[in-house]
Amino acid sequence: MLQVMIINGPNLNLLGRRQPEIYGEDTFDDFMIHLKGKFVDSDVELSYFQSNHEGELLDKLHEIGWSYDGIVLNAGAYTHTSVALADAVAAIETPVIEVHISNVHKREAFRHHSFLSPVCEGVIVGFGLRGYELAVQYFV
Ligand code: DQA
User: Fold this and answer.
1) By alpha-carbon position, which residue is closest to atom 13 of ligand 1?
2) Most buried among 8, 35, 75, 136, by the most CB within 10 A?
């Protein structure tokens, strides 16, 4: 059984309530039920972790980064600021796919740069929550 974890960073616990015109009206918990349903016949076990704290995101990457088969990471605003998260992604063995719900390239200039993209296996941007499904599909 493949082990794949979705890791969401700051403010993504607010999905469904936060700027729905950008991020949609679904909560991530509801979306996880839908996503698990999509992969029910696949040989993959999906798990989910969210934190608003950079250090907790680092700890989770360190914890699973040598044992899981794939990580889908939406680091939220830390994408654009965190050298520490980029170092962690570079350090671990598990491949990481960077996901953004919105098309960050259509938005403010400060969202155009990602410290994570150069150390991730791939990047999926702008497809809404569907981007997580596409990322999991890559590992299956
Ligand atoms: C985001 C884009 C980031 O710029 C923003 O800070 C987020 C969400 C996205 O999924 O579109 O928190 O990562």
Assistant:
1) 76
2) 75
Q: How far apart are CA 118 and CA 114, in angstroms?
A: 8
In contact, 4 and 32? CB cutoff 8 Å: no
Cα 88 to middle of ligand 1, angstroms:
19
User: Is 23 among the catalytic positions?
Assistant: yes
**Type and span of the H or E element at 124:** strand 122-125
Please give the C-alpha separations between residue 47 and each of 4, 6, 20, 111, 119, in angstroms, as whole numbers. Answer: 6, 6, 24, 27, 22
Confidence (pTM): 0.97
Q: Is 138 designated active site?
A: no
Q: Which atom of ligand 1 is nearest to the CA of 23?
A: 11
Helices (H), ranges, 1-139: 20-23, 28-38, 54-64, 83-91, 130-139
